[in-house]
Amino acid sequence: MSLKAVLPYFEVIREVKSVEQIDTEEERLLKLYKDKVTSKHHTFLLHEVMDMTFRKFGKAGLLYVYTNSGIFTFKLKIKPDEFLKTYRKLSGKP
Known about the structure:
Helices cover 12% and strands 61% of the residues.
């Protein structure tokens, strides 16, 4: 499988201790292949992905991945223009 595009996203991991809450930001990668999109915990077959959109919120934004089994969101710090362009080219969607 050849990797077509990579997009960094992040998750905030919260750890609650007896008197404090510690938030840790963990960077992860969304990977686009010819036939699938993978994240740390999910694999979406490309024919099951109906669309992807991006909405900017302040300095960050959210990538929405619309699939047959629901909508999944990924927190981004950069615009996913190249990733979305590659996705649309592979999927044949405008």
